[in-house]
Amino acid sequence: MKEQLETTHDSIVFDMDGTLWDATDSYAKVWNESARRLGIDINITGQVLLQYMGKPIDIIFDELFKGTFPVTAEKYLSVVDIVEDELMPTLGGKLYEGVEPGIKALSNHYKLFLLSNCGINGLNNFLRYTKLSQYFSGSITFGETGKQKSGNLKKLSERYSLKNPLYVGDTQGDCDETHKAGLEFALVTYGFGDAVDSDIRFNCFDSLVEYFTKQK
Predict the structure, then answer these.
(1) Which single residue of 57, 111, 134, 205 has CA 20 to 30 Å from 11?
(2) Which regions in the chain score pLDDT beneath 50?
């Protein structure tokens, strides 16, 4: 881990999957149930979806099924949105160790935000399940805007007048998109991937919280 970032930050923006929680098994249940409602029999596992986490949901569909799915992505993913809203507030995911108290502690020093490549209601369902909504000032998703993370980081900054947000994620794609937006990126190494050129690395959420609270 680098000992110090080059700049100070007025806000911290978090990725969801692989950064704050692991909900891959629940997502698999949602995808399977969505197919069932369309009369299609599939058996996707969380381990399979794990290979695609961090990518926009339409890209996951394309790479997973490779043109073999009997209905269009638009039709299937519209059902996924409905089923996810029904099931995820109950199924939820497993928060990584230290996330709940860490988010509460960080919110005393920074404005906190969520940014994910999930569907339009994915972050709302996360907040409903974890009951952490009071600690976040806002969120933005690929499902809402159709933009990649670099565009959504810029959009979030404009929407909330952020001067220098930091993005926290777990993959090289997260890192690339953050740098494309001209911002610094913090990697959590316990997630779904790696990023060789992250600006700073943390092997647990507690160490991230300790570092940033000491900056204030």
Answers:
(1) 57
(2) 1
